[in-house]
Amino acid sequence: MPETLGESLNFEVRKTDWKQTRFVGGPAPGDLEPGRVLFRVDRFALTANNITYALAGDGLGYWRFFPAEEGWGRIPVMGFADVVRSTHPGVAEGTRCFGFFPMARYLVIEPSRATAEQIVDGAPHRAGLAPVYGQYTPVLGDPLYSAAHEDAHMLMRGLFLTSFLVEDFLCERELFGARAVLISSASSKTSIALAFQVSRSGRAKAVGLTSRRNLDFVKGLGCYDQVLTYDEVKSLPADVPAVFVDMAGNAGVQRAIHEHYRDQLKHSCGVGATHWSAANLAGGADLPGPKPEFFFAPAQIQKRLKDWGPDGFQQRVGDAWRAFRDASAAWLHVVRESGRDALERVYQETLAGRTRPQDGHVLSLWDAPRGGKR
Ligand SMILES: NC(=O)c1ccc[n+]([C@@H]2O[C@H](COP(=O)([O-])OP(=O)(O)OC[C@H]3O[C@@H](n4cnc5c(N)ncnc54)[C@H](OP(=O)(O)O)[C@@H]3O)[C@@H](O)[C@H]2O)c1
Predict the structure, then answer these.
(1) Ligand 1 centroid vs 86 CA: distance in angstroms?
(2) Is the pLDDT confidence value at 374 over 50?
(3) What's the CA-to-centroid distance between 172 and ligand 1, angstroms?
(4) Spacing, Cα 27 to ligand 1 middle (Å)
(5) Which of 169, 218, 274 to mutate to test the pocket of ligand 1 (most atoms within 8 A of CB)?
(6) Residue 4 Cα, ligand 1 centroid: separation in angstroms?
(7) Which of 206, 214, 314, 317 is most buried by a 10 A CB count?
(8) DSSP letters for 167-228
(9) CA of 247 to the centre of ligand 1 (A)
């Protein structure tokens, strides 16, 4: 007997001013057309990374994943959802999946491919968007899944992969001759993952740059060799060659590093924009030292799939992920909340950069989310 469906609900932000939000409710989803799957979005994670999806909403097409009424956008998040209705022969009701969802109660997809390991949304509005975001992974077909670690999986699995690839990219190039990896927004989960990888491979010092309010937290992590605030960049030894991995995207910080290190900066790569309101829209073309380059994760994935084969790739990423996930239990404080008020509050705090870095916010628009252990 299929479960009774509740009313639908979507969280949306105004595309021109992300502080303005609204909830759009509606009746329970009706009958599905053939070849469709209805997900009940159980829980999802919300971090600064999702804010950069709004920043790149027009440029990189993030608004197109989950279309909304003109002028409004649905920011994508990573989460778990259960198939509650299916008219697709390859997808069974009850299948729990990890993937990219809107902050909503339901999502309908139109699978173009469905195996035990992967369901791919082939909806026409997703054509031309990065394929990786259209993939839904059934938990029973995912060797990296563990019910006891669903929260960490939602919060950091995707971020970790980026950091794994950044570190791998740098190591492949002998760190461009550098002996230190400078990492901005050192308190962010993506940066912590990178510092963890850098310190694990032991080829260079991991140097974290953060804001004053997050300094003690970052120092306490133990994965950075040195931690400084943004206004202390000039105290770094500029004669020791370094590479810069920028998660903050702050034009002032980027300039301070380039002007301090000049030719001793061996590579400068942009990964994030946590300080989105101070972003460098000019791209840093006039800076001394190397021209900043955007890190393109899919290229490194393709390269390593070829070098290591799909199994070798999975094995390496899986081993590294489990080590990071287990180590993060020492600092990650998961905060689970449900309902509109909680989502609105956490969203506004995340947008303004007021969340505590040790907190990992996991949210649901259902009163009683289902999965994972507490
Ligand atoms: N290109 C890619 O493929 C890729 C993949 C994954 C992540 N990323 C990027 O990596 C960055 C980190 O994401 P995350 O989810 O790991 O972040 P997170 O854990 O939520 O990071 C929170 C930290 O970011 C800084 N921050 C956030 N919002 C801010 C604001 N409004 N003003 C000032 N500082 C703010 C603060 O760090 P500090 O005080 O230390 O500055 C804060 O402690 C994001 O920009 C994300 O897009 C990129």
Answers:
(1) 36
(2) no
(3) 25
(4) 36
(5) 274
(6) 39
(7) 206
(8) HHHHHHTGGGG-SEEEESSTTSHHHHHHHHHHHHHTSSEEEEEE-GGGHHHHHHHS--SEEE
(9) 6
CA of 321 to the centre of ligand 1 (A): 19
Contacts of 354 (CB under 8 A, 6+ apart): none
Tens digits of per-residue pLDDT, 229-247? 999 999 999 999 999 999 9
User: What are the b/e assignments for 292-325, b being 16+ CB within 10 Å?
Assistant: beebebeebbeebeeeeeeeeeeeebeebbeebb
Ligand 1, atom 22: closest residue by C-alpha: 188
pTM: 0.96
- Residue type present at position 93: E
List C-alpha distances in Å: 194 to 36, 160, 162: 38, 8, 8
Q: What is the helix (H) or strand (E) element at residue 346, kind and residue range?
A: helix 340-352
Contact 242, 184 (CB under 8 A): no
Nearest to 192 by CA among 312, 301, 52, 329: 329
> Which residues have any ligand 1 atom within 6 Å of their CB?
47-49, 52, 159, 162, 185-190, 210-211, 214, 247-248, 271-275, 297, 352-353, 357
Q: In whole angstroms, give the CA distance from residue 200 to residue 223.
A: 9
Helix axes 189-201, 297-328, angle to 10 degrees: 90
Nearest CA to ligand 1 atom 29: 353
Contacts of 2 (CB under 8 A, 6+ apart): 84, 85, 93
Q: How far apart are CA 40 and CA 230, in angstroms?
A: 42
For 300-316, what is each residue's pLDDT tens digit? 999 999 999 999 999 99
Contact by Cβ (8 Å): 345, 172: no
Write down the residue that tokens 């938990």 correspond to.
139
pLDDT digits (tens, 9 = 90+) for 184-214: 999 999 999 999 999 999 999 999 999 999 9
pLDDT above 90 (res 285): no
